[in-house]
Amino acid sequence: MATYRVLVSDPISEKGVEALAAAPEISVDVKTGLKPEELLKIIGDYHGLVVRSETKVTAEVLAAATNLKAIGRAGVGVDNIDRKASTDHGVIVMNTPTGNTISTAEHAFTLMLSAARNVAPAHAEVLKGNFKAARKAYQGIELNTKRLAILGMGRIGTEFAKRAQAFNMTVVAYDPFLTQARADELKVELAKTPDEALKGADVVTLHVPLTPDTNHILNTERLALMNKGALVVNCARGGLIDEVALKAAIDSGHIAGCALDVFEVEPPPNDHPLFELNKHVVLTPHLGASTNEAQENVGIQVAEQLRDFFVTGEIKNAINMPSLDAATRAAIGPYLDLAGALGKLLAKLGPENPDSLRVSYHGELAKKDTGLVSRTALTALLEASRPDGQVNIVNAPAIATQLGLDLTESTINAKTEFSELVVAELRKGEDRYRVAGTIIGRSPRIVEIDRLYVDCAIKGRFLFVENDDRPGMVGVVGTALGDASVNIANMDLARTADRTRALTVIEVDSEPPTSLLEKLRSTPGILRVLTLDL
Ligand SMILES: NC(=O)c1ccc[n+]([C@@H]2O[C@H](COP(=O)([O-])OP(=O)(O)OC[C@H]3O[C@@H](n4cnc5c(N)ncnc54)[C@H](O)[C@@H]3O)[C@@H](O)[C@H]2O)c1
Ligand SMILES: O=C(O)[C@H](O)COP(=O)(O)O
């Protein structure tokens, strides 16, 4: 019986569906073209969701998706998925960033050539029998030596640049992450601003994600910076262009035309103003990634990523989580277990309503990527007060922020008696409580509780007894446990350097009854008694 149910709600390649269904742990339902209300009704039954750009994964859908753990986007753009709501609900969002790069770059390039040479309107006229008239009407634009501005020099922008250079175009690129060294390597001019890239450009092509910052990145003012007779190409997202401004710039004759694969609203309405245009215009229905090759790539990639996430815990190409490959998962597995135990210990023993959790790493571990280890400690800390599955590794930082709890990480070079040490400290004002652990062999051990040195396992049922450090206390505790028929599996004793306070960590074989806890708590010299299942 499959453990995880995955809904594929947009068409992906058959091979992708097969790759997902091949895992015995996973059962797959393909239901494409669902209306929003139909999706809302069934999404609660699924642990995984696979989409392209059609399914809108809104905050409402995520609120109804009570079992959802992961969304796989078979493609690049994730603007159809409410990222914040996904994170708040603890749902991992992964995309497949590389699978459709070439197909999309080729489509964008095709669009540029088609707009320059009026391929679409000329074709339509030929079919209508207007061969001669069309020969006169559709004079083209040569691209050789023209200046091309690329906004967004990521995967697709870079591939577009290579093709444009083969056509002897001069390429100028703007991307906030493009360095001079990379620009030199790609033989493109580096623009410091979008305006600088657009000034004097004959063609612009957009390859940036749609975000609140990039919405209408191409507007009236920026179109005006381009040369008269310039072309606009957009194979990224419709919202990047102010379509009203574009229509006005084409009507005025400043911009010659446009080549668009994407629209502000998809599908665009039948009376869309750009549909009135004819010369140097070509419009396609979001076909950039629609090749057999790209669809197989992204379909299989998304299937493998979701399968690995459910089966091995591997996290690849997540946009709201650090990645975690299988090898790293295996290497840091014991530290994740240790961090979980430290978080639980702090929840039980540390101050309530803390201001911050500080996780510090000593030794070799300090050189590794410990982000997920810290997140695991935070998740375990928060889970203790929300045991109903509301908190997980994806949403723990967001929940902590809502609570005003800071998570800080530090690496410490000072030597300790352990080759590696993880210290988790909960702070509330001046009040601090710390616990620490290490890995011995492959086994996580707790080695410090509130500055007292212990050695205990991270799994089991424990009784913590803090008492004045005076003779006879261990006997009192042992006798009380014996009288209550609670067997001791392990016992570890620690005391402060000034010998005023002692801590006994007792691993027990059965749940200590309330009567035993009350008896211990009322025993003179016993300061605190707590039980904890780790
Ligand atoms: N039409 C289609 O079918 C289709 C197919 C694939 C991708 N896309 C779209 O194309 C976009 C780009 O895809 P990609 O694979 O090249 O992504 P990418 O992440 O490799 O590249 C995006 C680049 O944009 C840059 N960027 C971000 N903000 C910017 C800004 N304000 N100005 C300039 N550059 C900025 C980033 O630094 C990055 O280098 C995707 O986000 C997606 O929306 C469309
Ligand atoms: O962002 C993408 O990957 C493209 O826009 C492709 O979208 P699609 O999968 O809906 O064709």
From TrEMBL:
GO MF entries: NAD binding; phosphoglycerate dehydrogenase activity
GO BP field: L-serine biosynthetic process
EC number: 1.1.1.95
InterPro entries the record matches: ACT-like_dom_sf, ACT_dom, ASB_dom_sf, D-isomer_2_OHA_DH_cat_dom, D-isomer_DH_CS, D-isomer_DH_CS1, D-isomer_DH_NAD-bd, NAD(P)-bd_dom_sf
Catalyzed reactions per annotation: (2R)-3-phosphoglycerate + NAD(+) = 3-phosphooxypyruvate + NADH + H(+); (R)-2-hydroxyglutarate + NAD(+) = 2-oxoglutarate + NADH + H(+)
SUPFAM superfamilies membership: ACT-like, Formate/glycerate dehydrogenase catalytic domain-like, NAD(P)-binding Rossmann-fold domains, Serine metabolism enzymes domain
CDD domains given in the database record: ACT_3PGDH-xct, PGDH_4
Pathways per UniProt: Amino-acid biosynthesis; L-serine biosynthesis; L-serine from 3-phospho-D-glycerate: step 1/3
ACT domain location: 462-534
Pfam families, alphabetized: 2-Hacid_dh, 2-Hacid_dh_C, ACT, PGDH_inter
Segment forming the signal sequence: none
Annotated keywords: Amino-acid biosynthesis, NAD, Oxidoreductase, Serine biosynthesis
EC top class, as a word: oxidoreductase
Membership in a protein family: Belongs to the D-isomer specific 2-hydroxyacid dehydrogenase family.
Role played: Catalyzes the reversible oxidation of 3-phospho-D-glycerate to 3-phosphonooxypyruvate, the first step of the phosphorylated L-serine biosynthesis pathway. Also catalyzes the reversible oxidation of 2-hydroxyglutarate to 2-oxoglutarate.
Name the UniProt record assigns to this protein: D-3-phosphoglycerate dehydrogenase
Species whose genome carries this gene: Luteolibacter luteus
